[in-house]
Design goal:
alpha/beta; 385 residues
C-alpha cells in the first residue's frame, strides 16, 4: 500500500526539479504585478469611507445569502452595479472564481457543447469540467476556428438537440490581448449560441466611465444580446467578490441552482458597502484611466526598443516572454531584490515562462523607466552566467 506522504514528497520533488515550485510571499516594493489597476485598495477616500462604515456591520455575514447572510447593502450594490453596466439583473457572489465556476456549472450540462478559448481562466475551464459538458477548445482568439467548430456541430447535430455555449475572457490576464467582440457577436447572431463574457480585467479601465471593454467595442443593442457577463470586485474595485450580470430570469435560475452560491457563506456585509462607494469613484477616474493606458504604451514601446520579446498585448498587462522557468525566476527574484515587485508566471498556468507586468494608475513614468533599466541590467547579468 502506497504511503500518502511519500507520494506527496515525490510530487513536490518533481515540481522543484522542473523549477515550478510555488510558495506564498509577502509583497513588498513597487507594485508591478497586482490587479489593483485603479489603486483603490489604498485610495484615501476609500479608506476614509471604510472608517465611517466599519461599525455598522458585524464582522462576518454568518451564513449563506439564502439563510441569514443577505444584507440590504448587497441588494443595493447589485442594483447599482447592474445600472452602471446597463444590465437587467445581477448576482453578487464571494469571488470571481466562484462566479465563473458556478455559472458554467449551472448553465451547462452533459448534453450540451461548450466552446471555450484555449487560454480561458481556470475558473471557466473548471466550471465546464464539473458540469460534464462536451468541451470544445478553439485556438486562442481564433474566431475562424470557432466558426469551423460551430459549423461542425451543426452538421453533427442538425436538429440542435444540444445547447451551444461560447465563453471567453474579454481581456486575457496572462497575455494582455482581447478577442474581436464584433465578430463574436456576429457569430452569435448567426449560430444562436449562449454567450458568456468575462470582463474581470477590463472593468474600471475601458469604455466610458470604465464600464468595460464591451462598452468600448460594441453597440448598446449588441451588449444587450450578451447572455451573461461576469465581473470581479477583486481587481479595479480594489475589494473581493464576483458579480454576474444577466436577465432577471437568469438571476432567478442561478439563485436556485448555483451550488457555490447556495452553499457558500455570503461575502462580508461591509464589502458590498465599500463596493458601492468604489463604483461611484470609478466613473470619475478618467484621468487615472488615461494615465494607466499612457504608461502601458510607454512601457511596451520601451521594452520592444530594448529587444525584449512580448506577447501581442493591447492592454495594461504586458508579459515579457522568457526561455526557461529558471530564467523567469532569476529575473523576478532580481527585480524583487531591487524593490520592483514583478512575478514569474510558469507552466502550467502558461505554456511559455514569462514576467507578467501588470500596471496600475498609481505608477509614474519614472517607475516605468526604472523597471526597463533594471530589466536590461538583469538580462546582461543572466547572459554572463
Amino acid at each position: 500500500m502506497a504511503n500518502h506522504w511519500e507520494e506527496v514528497q515525490k510530487k513536490l520533488d518533481s515540481i522543484r526539479e522542473k523549477q515550478l515550485f510555488r510558495e506564498t510571499k509577502v509583497y513588498q516594493g513597487i507594485d508591478f504585478c497586482s490587479n489593483d489597476y485603479m489603486g483603490l485598495t489604498s485610495n484615501p477616500r476609500m479608506l476614509e469611507f471604510f472608517q465611517s462604515r466599519k461599525n455598522l456591520y458585524p464582522f462576518g455575514s454568518t451564513a449563506s445569502r439564502l439563510v441569514r447572510g443577505n444584507t440590504s447593502s448587497m441588494d443595493r450594490f447589485e442594483s447599482e452595479f447592474v445600472h452602471f453596466v446597463e444590465g437587467e439583473a445581477a448576482l453578487l457572489v464571494s469571488t470571481g472564481f466562484t462566479a465563473n465556476f458556478g455559472l458554467l456549472d449551472s448553465i451547462a450540462a452533459p448534453d450540451c457543447f461548450v466552446f471555450t478559448d484555449r487560454l480561458n481562466h481556470a475558473s471557466i475551464l473548471d466550471g465546464i469540467r464539473i458540469s460534464g459538458a462536451k468541451k470544445k477548445y478553439y485556438n486562442h482568439l481564433d474566431l475562424n476556428h470557432l466558426r469551423t467548430l460551430l459549423e461542425k456541430a451543426d452538421l453533427e447535430d442538425p436538429n440542435r438537440k444540444h445547447k451551444r455555449i461560447v465563453v471567453t475572457e474579454t481581456l486575457f490576464s496572462m497575455d494582455g490581448d482581447s478577442p474581436d467582440l464584433k465578430t463574436l457577436l456576429s457569430l452569435k447572431k448567426e449560430f444562436g449560441f449562449v454567450l458568456v463574457l468575462d470582463e474581470a480585467h477590463t472593468l474600471g479601465i475601458y469604455g466610458p466611465k470604465g464600464k468595460g471593454l464591451v462598452f468600448r467595442d460594441l453597440t448598446s443593442s449588441e451588449i444587450q444580446s450578451i447572455d451573461y457577463r461576469v465581473y470581479t470586485l477583486g481587481k479595479s474595485l480594489g475589494l473581493e467578490g464576483g458579480i454576474i450580470v444577466t436577465k432577471k430570469i437568469g438571476r432567478d435560475h442561478l439563485v436556485n441552482v448555483m451550488r457555490p452560491f447556495i452553499f457558500s457563506t455570503a461575502p462580508l456585509p461591509l464589502v458590498s458597502e465599500l463596493a458601492s462607494f468604489a463604483l461611484s469613484l470609478l466613473s470619475s477616474m478618467d484621468k487615472e484611466r488615461e494615465t494607466l493606458l499612457t504608461l502601458a504604451k510607454e512601457l511596451k514601446n520601451s521594452l520592444e526598443e530594448n529587444g525584449f520579446v512580448l506577447t501581442n498585448s493591447t492592454s495594461h498587462i504586458i508579459p515579457v516572454l522568457l526561455t526557461t522557468e529558471k530564467e523567469a525566476l532569476f529575473f523576478a527574484n532580481s527585480l524583487q531584490e531591487r524593490g520592483l515587485d514583478v512575478r514569474a508566471i510558469r507552466p502550467p498556468t502558461v505554456s511559455t515562462p514569462r514576467l507578467r507586468i501588470s500596471l496600475n494608475a498609481k505608477l509614474s513614468l519614472p517607475d516605468i523607466q526604472s523597471l526597463v533599466k533594471e530589466l536590461v541590467l538583469i538580462r546582461e547579468k543572466w547572459n554572463s552566467l
